[in-house]
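ok trying again, last paste got cut off:
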Amino acid sequence: MKIIINVSLMVPIYEQIADQIKRQIRDGDLRENDPLPSVRTLSRELKISALTVKKAYDSLESDGFTKTVHGKGSYVTAANQELILEEQKKEIEKDLEKAILKGRRYGIADQDIRVLFELILEGELC
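nice, full thing came through this time. structure:
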């Protein structure tokens, strides 16, 4: 499993780990019942605290992406398509919010941002 940590991001490391594992599940790189590396193994590979990896795994489990079997490890759960779709929508919302904020910083009126959005949806700017 390939995970890249970017310490210059303002995103906590455990969130970076969880987000990348979620993406791998959504993309089909990780499938139902695939094991995740042990907390110790992943912390050693990434050269970070085991507590950080544990926090990421706990987050994945609470979001329904993995399950932990005591003494056995963490495994990918059945792909809940609704959950995956909801995660994808959240990701798009973040990107759209960034674009809107950037437009406002540049002094573009909200109506003009809406027009741009509509043009992009219609494929006229792509």
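cool. The longest helix spans residues 81-105. The chain has a mean pLDDT of 91.
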